[in-house]
């Protein structure tokens, strides 16, 4: 009887151990990449642009726009459209916060035809190609608390770092003051971890991104767009 009990306990432990390993293997992450540091001219340009964005320097930002900057997938593009779309002269323009997040989260160089581009943030080009960008998102941060309930005082059930997640919008907490935005998102990792995350730490790979190209010796922003 005692040997049988020991055997059952041993097998239970082995099963739990294997299940834990399998679950961990299913987890996928999109780790930060920043190739912008390796090009001296782009590094200097980006530093100046970040400073200008923090100061809300309209003149500087407009000055680095490509004349045909892509602003959406349905418009005509161009600088005037950019200014109108973002209400750039308004003190409540959302451009500055969006652009700062994009510029301060890495990115990578790549070729598009004959053109060499840099696109940011890193999540746009480094999200796994075998995962549907409309179905999966990612944790946009390191050691982000996954909570049992949508409350800062709720129990932390795990900490997530750059994990790929699915979002359950029906059971998430919407921002009543801003249509289409959320305060807390209910997520599940590919390894089965479930809980709530502060919405600012979850990002879609096709959220806003900026692309830059060097033209006539000067870096220009050729794209600032969301969606696909």
Report what the structure shows.
The protein has helices spanning 2-26, 40-55, 58-63, 79-86, 95-103, 122-126; strands spanning 65-70, 108-112, 115-120, 137-139, 144-147, 156-160, 164-174, 182-189, 194-198, 202-203, 209-215, 218-225. It folds into two domains: 35-128 and 206-225, Nuclear Transport Factor 2, Chain: A; 137-203, Roll (SH3 type barrels). It is built from six helices and twelve strands. The chain is of the alpha+beta class and 228 residues long. The termini are far apart. A hairpin with an 8-residue loop joins strand 5 and strand 6 (156-160). A five-stranded mixed beta sheet has the order 1-12-11-3-2. A five-stranded antiparallel beta sheet has the order 9-8-7-4-10, with no helix packed on it.
The dominant shape is globular
The rounded Rg comes to: 22 Å
* CATH-defined architecture of the largest domain: Roll
Class based on secondary structure composition and strand pairing:
alpha+beta
Number of helices: 6
Number of strands: 12
Uncertain residue segments: 14-24
Largest sheet: 5 strands, mixed
Which whole number gives the mean pLDDT?
91
CATH class of the largest domain: Alpha Beta
The end-to-end distance, rounded to whole angstroms, is: 63 Å
What topology, given as strand order, has the largest sheet?
1-12-11-3-2
> Helix and strand succession?
HHHEHHEEHEEEEEEEEE
CATH topology of the largest domain: Nuclear Transport Factor 2, Chain: A
State the helicity in percent bands.
Answer: 25-40%
Q: What amount of the residues lies in strands?
A: 25-35%
The number of domains: 2
